[in-house]
Amino acid sequence: MSTGQVAVVALGGNALSGPGDDGSIRSMRRHIRRAVEALFALRAQGFRLVITHGNGPQVGAQLLKNDAGKQVYGLPAYPLDVLVADTQGEIGYLIENAWRNLLQENNHEAKVASLVSMIEVDPSDPAFKNPVKRVGKTYYDADEVRRLAAEKSWQFLEETKNGRTGWRRVVPSPVPQAVVNAGALRVLLDAGFDLIAGGGGGIPVSRNPDGNLQPVEAVIDKDLTSALIARTLDAGKLIILTDVPQVYLNYGKPAQKAIDRVSVADLEELIEQGQFGAGNMLPKVRAAMDFARRSGHPAIITDFEGLAGGNGTQIMP
Length: 317
Known about the structure:
By secondary structure, the protein is α/β, with parallel strands linked by helices.
């Protein structure tokens, strides 16, 4: 497979929703159409695309439905790995539908496939001893925390936000190690398909001593999984789409400055200086660095307008 022909594109949450959205399917369709239109220029340049995506709001909604279904109807709650698989199918369908329609409208052969993707993690990853990824309901009260910790062994962290203090459920966020269905991805790419895969960071699984896969109650960072998929498929380009056109120094301050092109080594120094927000830009920067360092190819962080205009921050090996 030629490395110059495959681009992995990670769609951030802004690809699926925007400020003030109601979370409806109609709203998601509108945002996804905008997203695939921005990606069409890559297809026109001869790239086959592997599209990854976030799923945080959708999994959060499913967890709330879990709570309501159990309380009102006595329905069994689904575990986190099944909810990730569920939202992979939901969002993958919406992206595939929009991408197929756009290709046909522009007289391109509509060869697209969505794959539910398991991602293998290491059960000894340090993240399992320090869960920090927030999931589910915005806040739990102290009584709920005691009950759920006893019933389900859930873990919680107390936080204060916008003047309100409460408890949030947290799960581990281990580093992705391997793409379980990598062989299928390669076969489909070689056959000329564009793909939607690795949604929400993938369904986290680990291997038993006998080699069987078992689910893991965790959430994998979507951008790290995108970098892993890009390396696994020998992609020539990784593009991480977010809500700003470039990475910035001193973000949000009077001395804010956009970064056009930067090396992995220089980014390491900037991280040590605390330049990037831990819950926002830092994971994207680390994923881009990981891909550039280990593949020898550049990664780009930008937004839809930056992608269309050939702008963004380039991270060089």
